[in-house]
């Protein structure tokens, strides 16, 4: 029975990853088709339409998923997470009964929540990481004779990632009649990171006061780069504590899995009796609280 449980669990994990990857691929293909349609290319030249089911992430979940900077879109991550919960829960019910299904659902849900929590603020760090190069690009463009708006348009077109998307959105607002100050202030409200606030203040101050604007922007870029270096060093120094917390949190789960997989008596007690299920749920709850507590203690706000 333990071999069958291991095989089914492995199959459930693989199926969940495949579902998430398939949903992400479908969404990327749809995005390419939409861009081609906007460019005037007919849908017939891009192949047949792809039909799939994508669950829309709730707004309160979407904010956390976007902040975690996952490699897949928020809807794809939410769909994969829901599929993982369903597949693992049904597998546990078939293999070990309803009690094990409840425990498996709680474990997968908690694992996903901990993964997202461990990547909190990743989007902001990605944005700030691109700021020094963007500010240097604005300074170079201004040294060549471009105005502030022209320099920002040029940099926005060549900056990748979320920072480039935010800059392009701000400059599109300026093209639509909004003032540069209002557009950059709106960008700052959407991305309230310290580096973004500093960069926006430097750009707006130089646009109003004039003078050696390019030199000031280069100085701000150097300051942001130095701050990012210090923050990265602080996070690296705290990585050992975070790794120790992960090992301590996973050790009881590994021991419980080993005991259930090698001893049928322990498995029957933990998964098929009310007292055993109660002990298992209590242990998982205490382990989750301990993991959260250690994560909070090891967290460094750099």
Structure description:
- The two termini are 48 Å apart.
- The chain is elongated.
- It has three domains: 120 residues, no CATH class; 111 residues; 65 residues.
- By secondary structure, it is mostly helical.
- The chain has 13 helices and no strands.
Could you tell me how far the N terminus lies from the C terminus, measured between alpha carbons in angstroms?
48 Å
The number of helical segments is: 13
How would you describe the shape? elongated
Report on the biggest sheet: none
Helix content: over 70%
Class by SSE composition: mainly alpha
- Taking pLDDT < 50 over at least 5 consecutive residues as the criterion, the unreliable ranges are 1-11, 37-51
| Strand segment tally | 0
Name the average pLDDT.
77
How much of the sequence is in beta strands? under 5%
Topology order in helix (H) and strand (E) letters: HHHHHHHHHHHHH
Radius of gyration: 25 Å
Number of domains: 3
Summarize the structure.
The chain has helices at residues 2-38, 59-67, 74-96, 98-118, 122-143, 148-158, 161-175, 180-190, 194-209, 213-237, 239-262, 264-272, 274-298. With 302 residues, it is mainly alpha-helical.
């Amino acid at each position: 029975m333990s071999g069958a449980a291991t095989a089914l669990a492995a199959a459930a994990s693989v199926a969940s990853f495949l579902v998430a990857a398939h949903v992400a691929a479908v969404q990327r293909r749809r995005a390419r088709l939409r861009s081609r349609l906007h460019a005037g290319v007919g849908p017939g030249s891009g192949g047949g339409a792809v039909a799939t089911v994508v669950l829309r992430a709730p707004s309160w979940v979407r904010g956390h998923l976007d902040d975690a900077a996952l490699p897949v879109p928020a809807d794809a991550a939410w769909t994969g997470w829901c599929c993982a919960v369903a597949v693992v829960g049904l597998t546990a019910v078939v293999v070990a009964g309803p009690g094990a299904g409840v425990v498996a659902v709680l474990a997968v849900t908690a694992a996903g929540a901990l993964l997202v929590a461990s990547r909190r603020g990743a989007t902001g760090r990605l944005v700030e990481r691109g700021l020094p190069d963007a500010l240097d690009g604005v300074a170079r463009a201004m040294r060549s004779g471009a105005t502030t708006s022209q320099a920002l348009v040029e940099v926005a077109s060549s900056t990748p990632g979320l920072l480039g998307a935010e800059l392009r959105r701000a400059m599109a607002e300026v093209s639509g009649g909004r003032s540069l100050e209002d557009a950059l202030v709106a960008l700052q409200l959407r991305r309230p990171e310290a580096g973004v606030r500093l960069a926006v203040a430097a750009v707006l101050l130089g646009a109003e006061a004039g003078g050696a604007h390019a030199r000031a922007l280069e100085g701000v870029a150097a300051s942001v780069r130095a701050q990012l270096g210090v923050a990265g060093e602080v996070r690296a120094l705290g990585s050992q504590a975070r790794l120790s917390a992960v090992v301590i949190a996973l050790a009881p789960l590994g021991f419980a899995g080993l005991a259930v997989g090698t001893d049928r008596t322990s498995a029957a007690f933990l998964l098929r009796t009310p007292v055993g299920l109660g002990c298992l749920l209590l242990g998982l709850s205490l382990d989750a609280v301990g993991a959260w507590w250690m994560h909070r203690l090891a967290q460094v706000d750099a």
